[in-house]
Amino acid sequence: MALRVDDFVVENRDLDEGSFLARFPHPFLVSEGASASASTSNLEARTAKMKGPLPAESAGSGEGPFLLAIKKKEHGQHGSIVTVGRAEDCDVRIAHPLVSKRHAYFTQEGEKWFICDAESSNGTFADGVALDPHKKHLLTDSEALRFGPEVRYRYFGSLAFFRYMSYRARIKK
Asked: Would you give the DSSP letter of residue 48?
């Protein structure tokens, strides 16, 4: 099950900036294109503190974009990194056949977030450039990320995502 951005916006549209940042201090990935229907996450358990239950939305519906939170699972096994991949124990799970079991990982240094390829089979790309395995790449808001040849997302820090969400809420009225 994946969480649609518009459903997240509806659930959290009444939060002011400070309340949003306190509740969601982590960055987000927003799906792009066809990858939205091919991706899933374990957001239900990781966003249990949200108001009410998450909407039941089929990942295969084609209605997107979808949202992934970049944060560790409650009982994450990989130290301080946030893992991305197809494996069940990844912090950010992307169930797509061209995404490796352990595809990439995020790290945080102060307020800055980085992504590293984890020697994936099909590569990790930032704004179209292939990342070298285990070499940190500093992320910027709205940066295009690709996991393998097909799975595309945009990276948003928490504040940038709040502004993106606020914009979506205004245009949906």
From this structure: T
E strand or H helix at 169: helix 158-171
| Residue 21 burial (C-beta neighbours within 10 Å; 0-12, 13-18, 19+) | middle
Using alpha carbons only, give the angle 124, 91, 67 rounded to the nearest 5 degrees.
75
Structural domain harbouring 88: 3-171
Query: Is 54's pLDDT higher than 80?
Result: no
User: Higher confidence at residue 3 or residue 123?
Assistant: 123
DSSP bridge pairs for 93: 85
Please give the Cα distance from 113 to 41 (Å, whole number): 20
Q: What does DSSP assign to residue 79?
A: T
Q: How many structural domains comprise the chain?
A: 1
Q: What is the mean pLDDT of residues 22-38?
A: 80
Given a contact cutoff of 8 angstroms between Cβ atoms, the answer to whether 36 and 2 are in contact is: yes
Q: Identify the band that residue 34 occupies on the pLDDT scale cut at 50, 70 and 90.
A: low
pLDDT over threshold 70, residue 76: no
Cα distance between residue 146 and residue 144, in whole Å: 7
State both tokens at 6.
């518009």
Asked if residues 151 and 104 have their Cβ atoms less than 8 Å apart, the reply is no
Domain CATH for 8 = 2.60.200.20
